[in-house]
Design brief:
Layout: H1 2-14, H2 16-36, E1 51-55, H3 60-71, E2 75-80, H4 83-97, E3 102-106, H5 112-125, E4 131-134, H6 152-167, H7 169-174, E5 178-183, H8 206-227, E6 233-239, H9 257-263, H10 266-269, H11 273-276, H12 278-285, E7 295-298, E8 301-302, H13 312-326
Parallel strand pairs: 1-2, 1-4, 2-3, 4-5, 5-6, 6-7
Antiparallel strand pairs: 7-8
Helix pairs in contact: 3-4, 5-6, 6-8, 6-13, 8-13
The structure holds NADP nicotinamide-adenine-dinucleotide phosphate.
NADP nicotinamide-adenine-dinucleotide phosphate is lined by residues 55-56, 58-62, 80-82, 85, 107-110, 135-139, 156, 183, 185, 239-240, 242-243, 245-247.
Length: 329
């Protein structure tokens, strides 16, 4: 041991510049990582007696959001498409929070029939709904279609949540003050709503499709706020950060090995799912947001959405188009 300590001492004395450089770089990298982790929701708000429904809560930031909501005392409904994974996640949420009031419900957002079935079940069995968190998402998949023939990313990320929210509005209005939280993305900043080819049939591109669906989340939040003004139901859209989750499952495997290897160091700097859930939690519970609606948030703070995410005419047009696509009067 003494020999080892002596050898380290000699090494440091012989290479002072190198050792200092390594230490400074290490501390710098960790500081950068902490900074990139972004804001933390500081609200201590309790949710005892309240009900929170989270879509896509079996993994990623949805699961971490569920643990937080359960920690605050809420009844938490995990609305997921794979019952095996959802039940496993619910067990974990119960264990980590010590809250047994965590239930699983079936929801496949790629099927309007499934969305309608879940909404009917909730209307018939739940007395209240205080927070609806539209979190589920799919990113950069091949040119797939939903059961109803819509382009998959627009169908799941926007249309399914659009219909679900509309069908649950009466319950949300009965439970005021209540909130609708839509998990969008920074990707909306390069998005465009292709009103002339909403399913991108002419020229499908997985990135363009993802961006369109995330812009739709921001515009939906905005128009919903207008329609709910004065009801006590408020709406929020957010970018959760860049997070190490399963979201890249359709995109990463399609890359050649050398590109996947290039991505590996990048994972050191991205957020953990717990860090990635903080802005969703902030929008769901923070008291300071009670009287604001329709806006966009990032890192637990308000942020201006891109100009196309603040286009009220486009928001109204998207609402009308979405309503006709999902068969809402
Ligand atoms: N991760 C990031 O860096 C990042 C950045 C910006 C925005 N976001 C947004 O954050 C949200 C959560 O993503 P995440 O990162 O936590 O991804 P994730 O780990 O892939 O989780 C996505 C969740 O959505 C569910 N889902 C997918 N298709 C569905 C469908 N048809 N019906 C019902 N549920 C479905 C998944 O269920 P299965 O497990 O059954 O597939 C899963 O529970 C998404 O809206 C995403 O766009 C993420």
């Amino acid at each position: 041991m003494q020999d080892y300590t002596k050898a380290v001492k000699v090494f440091v004395e012989e290479h002072p510049a190198g050792v200092t450089a390594v230490l400074v770089t290490g501390v710098g990298l960790f500081a950068l990582r902490r900074w990139l982790a972004g804001g933390v929701c500081r609200s201590k708000a309790r949710l005892d007696g309240k009900t929170v429904l989270i879509t896509g809560a079996n993994t990623g930031i949805g699961k971490e959001t569920a643990v937080d909501m359960a920690n605050r005392g809420a009844r938490v409904i995990l609305a997921c498409r794979d019952m095996g994974r959802a039940n496993k996640a619910a067990d974990e949420v119960r264990k980590r929070s010590g809250n047994g009031n965590v239930v699983v419900k079936m929801l496949d957002l790629a099927s309007l029939q499934s969305v309608r079935a879940l909404a009917k079940d909730i209307q018939q069995t739940e007395e209240r709904l205080d927070v609806l968190i539209n979190n589920a998402g799919i990113m950069m998949c091949p040119q797939w279609k939903t059961d109803d023939g819509f382009e998959m990313q627009f169908g799941v990320n926007h249309l399914g949540h659009f219909l679900l929210t509309n069908l649950l509005l009466d319950l949300l209005k009965k439970s005021t003050p209540s909130r609708v939280v839509n998990v969008s993305s920074l990707a909306h900043e390069k998005g465009k709503i292709h009103f002339d080819d909403i399913n991108l049939e002419k020229n499908y591109d997985p990135t363009i499709s993802y961006r369109q669906s995330k812009l739709a989340n921001v515009l939906f939040t905005r128009e919903l706020a207008v329609r709910l003004k004065g009801t006590g139901v408020t709406t929020y859209a957010l970018h959760p950060g860049v997070i190490h989750t399963e979201l890249g499952r359709h995109f990463l495997p399609s890359l050649p090995l050398w590109k996947r290897l290039l991505f590996m160091p990048f994972f050191f700097f991205v957020k953990t799912p717990w860090q990635g859930a903080q802005t969703t939690i902030y929008c769901a519970v923070d008291e300071s947001l009670q009287n604001t609606s329709g806006l966009y948030y990032s890192d637990c703070a308000p942020k201006e959405a891109a100009p196309q995410g603040r286009d009220d005419a486009a928001a109204r047009r998207l609402w009308d188009l979405s309503a006709s696509m999902v068969g809402l009067a």
